[in-house]
Design brief:
The structure is a single chain. This protein is mainly alpha-helical. It has two helices and no strands. The protein is elongated. Bound molecules: zinc ion.
Amino acid sequence: MVSYASEVASIHKQFNVALKRAKSRQAVLNCYWKHKAQHERLLKKHLKEEIAQVNKIKARIKYK
Ligand SMILES: [Zn+2]
């Protein structure tokens, strides 16, 4: 499984490359919006995995 941190590092690499190639204000902004969407997708997935992990551990603890 790919880790969240390495996926984030990978989109930042793509973002930096794309930014350097962007030749217009609009192109620079488009890089940002695309990057933001990628962040949001990854974060959503990551938080979903974490809540699953939390719930698994929670289920092992007896209710008091
Ligand atoms: Zn970023």
